[in-house]
Amino acid sequence: MNGRFRQWTIQEDAAKMLEYAAEQRIETVWDRLAKQQPLCGYCEMGLSCRNCTMGPCRIDPFGEGPQKGVCGADADVIVARNLGRMIAAGASSHSDHGRDILETFHALAQGKTTGYQITDEAKLFRLAAELGVPTDGRPINEIALDLAEALLEDFGSRKEQLGFLGRVPEVRRNLWKKLGITPRGIDRENVEMLHRTHMGVDNDYVNILLHGLRTGLSDGWGGSLIATELSDVLFGTPTPKMSQINLGALKADHVNIALHGHNPMLSSVIVQAAQDPEMVALAREKGAAGINLVGLCCTGNEILMRRGVPMAGNHLMQELVIMTGVLDAMVVDYQCIMPAVVDIARCFHTRIITTFDKAKFPGAAHISFEANRAYETGKEIVRQAIEAFSLRDPKAARIPVEPMAMMTGFSVEAILQALGGTPEPLVAAIKDGAIRGAAGVIGCNNPKIPQDYGHIVLCRRLIENDILVVVTGCSTVANAKAGHMVPEAADLAGPGLRSVCKALGIPPILHMGSCVDNSRILVLAAALANYLGVDIDQLPLAGAAPEWYSEKAVAIGAYVVASGIFAVLGVHPPIFGSKNVVQLLASDLEQVVGAKFAVEPDPERAAGLIRRHIESKRKGLGLPFVEPESIPMP
Ligand code: SF4
Ligand code: MSK
After folding, report:
1. pLDDT class for 114, splitting at 50, 70, 90?
2. Does any domain span residue 497?
């Protein structure tokens, strides 16, 4: 591999495409990062503020220049306000996605959609019962309508707490109540954060950040959880299945369509439309062997989990997939889609098709998603991809690798089923020490870190230490490409985890879905805590986001820690301009919610931190443990 690209990616398919990009002088995310150097130090430390036009202001971290903004805000307030707004932006992104799913579900219940149905009736009944919606003898559409109305209420502010909080251990709900951080309404917490961080409202950094936890909780136990649960009802609760991964998932003789973004609403319909005999016949008429769908980012994770659709790549692959010359259309919904894909597509025959009126890209074709004609829209998109296929230059095809196998589909329901219907076997394996604990490794790629290095090294070290890993989002692709997500990968794990995985026929790293599906990890953690009669913060669990870039990852970090789970970040958040904020988040928070953040860019050391943390929790529960301090840090 070219040495220059070794600093950018550890993946063969990405490196080969980067060589091609360099030859053709096609600019990528890595080139643009290089052109941005040096990055603004004030912004990196969270010390710049542009919340009003008396500024923008900045605080001198060396103490020589200004220590206050024009309004008098100091470093603590500015850093906390900036972080609070990041959390609100991330939580709003997940929760608005949840609202879109909910509105489609609401329209389905009223018979106003095409291309949708209730796929998991049993889950619909369970959710209805949980939210107090009567089910006996009622038609399913009436139940769905009442459930939709009840969940729409969660977005408003008329309730004292969100509908799904009954899943949280009582002791933690009481803690949130005592701290005043019980999430009330999804929209409310986000709006309140924007209000508090306006000039001259909340000038207490602790108070701002406590509300940051509440805002995060409105995402994890609200918007994201609604997105996950209703997507399961609509499109089916995932079950284990095999699929494929990397740029080798593209097929040179097929019409190739990449589905990119986060929302499964349209992509699930496109999966049906691509199988429509009319579309298949049209593709053949144009000389294609068939229609091949691949996923990118979390839209990819959604259709991978439920339909086994292969994944072409994660966040940093979105530009490179276009350069294969065989991608006929990239269909995007929203979030994590770089504006640059339109520029790169101009060099090829690829059509970029935007689908949501709230996410338009100049230069792309726009086909508006409407639930009442979703199937027709799906077919129109497939038709456009087939037209683009006719324009493809067959000599320009360059698919750089063969696809890798992976196993997907580990919803909480599927995990429980694999365990025989009860968490007891998992609890027993943790109790006797065969499995030391579990870690959720989530989040993005960031061009500041060699692509996938953080995910792969961290996860490999964790499983070697008998720590069961669950992954979502872009960590999934990284680990699958490393061969970590097939049952045979049990051989890479320590002896305890290996024996459990082999007995169950599962990989040591389980795919739990997309970014909103981090709520599945919360639900599993709460279910384990409830089963054992303890709070979540007593469990030997941890979370990590080794290559995060997105505001959504900050919101996830906030709800993970507020729920009692230690979280390790691999990229520095913009907080280091305030010693007090760092002290609060990396230390004092533990006394408040039983968990805290750590920042550790080296994944070997991050694995050490997590192993020590898990052993300390085992000690606290009276389980066999290794003295945490005796575990060497790399
Ligand atoms: Fe400056 Fe205060 Fe305005 Fe921020 S809110 S830009 S610190 S004056
Ligand atoms: S897609 S939020 S880059 S995980 Fe969910 Fe990947 Fe991060 Fe987007």
Report:
1. confident
2. yes
Instruction: List the 255-261 sheet strands across, edge first.
Output: 365-366, 351-354, 329-332, 255-261, 291-296, 311-313, 241-245, 404-408
Predicted confidence (pLDDT) per residue in 492-544, tens digit: 999 999 999 999 999 999 999 999 999 999 999 999 999 999 999 999 999 99
For residue 58, give the ligand nearest its CA: 1
Q: Answer yes or no: do 226 and 290 share one domain.
A: no
pTM of the model as a whole: 0.97
Is there a domain that residue 65 lies in? Answer: no
Q: What is the CATH number of the domain that holds 312?
A: 3.40.50.2030
**74 within ligand 1 shell (Cβ under 6 A):** no
Let me know whether 387 and 436 are in one domain: no
Give the burial string for 463-487 (b: 16+ CB within 10 Å, else e): bbbbbbbbbbbbbbbbbbbbbbbbb
| Token reading at 361 | 């890209």
Distance 52 CA to ligand 1 centre (A): 5
Distance 71 CA to ligand 1 centre (A): 5
**Minimum CA distance residue for ligand 2 atom 7:** 444
With respect to residue 403, please indicate whether it lies within any of the assigned structural domains: no
In the three-class reduction of DSSP (H, G, I as helix; E, B as strand; rest coil), residue 109 is classed as helix
Residues having CB closer than 6 A to ligand 2 are: 262, 297-298, 314-315, 336, 443-444, 473-474, 514-515, 550, 552
| CA atoms 17, 22, 25, 26: torsion sign | positive
Q: Which ligand is nearest to the CA of 447?
A: 2
Centre of ligand 1 from the C-alpha of residue 110, in Å: 48
The reply to whether 342 falls in a domain is yes
Which two three-digit tokens encode residue 445? 């790629």
Give residue 172's domain range: 75-235
How many angstroms separate the alpha carbon of residue 131 from the centre of ligand 2? Answer: 30
Could you tell me if 254 and 370 lie in one domain?
yes
Amino acid 396: pLDDT: 86
Q: From ligand 2's centre to the CA of 554, what distance in Å?
A: 12
